[in-house]
Write a structure and sequence with these properties.
The protein has helices at residues 4-41, 88-91, 103-114; strands spanning 47-56, 59-66, 69-75, 80-86, 119-120, 134-135. The chain has 141 residues and is an alpha+beta fold. The strands form 2 sheets. A 4-stranded antiparallel sheet has the order 1-2-3-4. Strands 5-6 form a two-stranded antiparallel sheet. The protein folds into 3 domains: 1-44; 47-91; 103-140, no CATH class.
């Protein structure tokens, strides 16, 4: 019968080998992914997305550059349609808009400009009840 220390030593060897085998599998997947992508695309990115504008949760406009052509696409859940083709030479003169501000910053800016006070009370007087909702009314100013 084996002693306790021999059992723990065998247990450690078994998990050590399991770790080595798992590391080799992960490294193999990484190498396959890395070299297969380069060979498939020949090292060049032929299609790229320049901009996306969401119109609704399931509809968006996508500006795509494919080889030497820029396309504006309308994308829905069931259909993709080409809306227009844009000359790539004119794309250099167009400057993108500033990134959109978050809702909280826009709301706080509007509240501070209007000078309206924000109170924490329910909307019972208007037929609606929102417990703990922040409400700004003209009576508060």
């Amino acid at each position: 019968m084996q002693t306790t220390s021999e059992i723990w030593l065998a247990f450690g060897r078994m998990f050590g080998m399991l770790f080595v085998v798992m590391a080799l599998i992960v490294a193999g997947f990484y190498l396959v992914k890395r070299f297969s992508v380069q060979r498939r695309g020949m090292g060049r990115n032929l299609i790229s997305t320049l901009a996306v504008h969401h119109i609704s949760p399931k509809e968006k406009l996508v500006l795509v550059q494919a080889v030497n052509e820029v396309l504006l696409l309308g994308v829905t859940t069931n259909h993709i349609s080409t809306l227009t083709r844009i000359d790539p030479a004119t794309m250099d003169t167009v400057e993108p808009n500033e990134p959109a501000q978050g809702f909280a910053s826009v709301l706080s800016g509007m509240i501070s400009r209007s000078g309206t006070q924000v109170s924490q009370r329910p909307l019972e007087d208007q037929g609606r009840f929102h417990q703990g909702a922040a409400v700004a009314t003209e009576k508060d100013t």
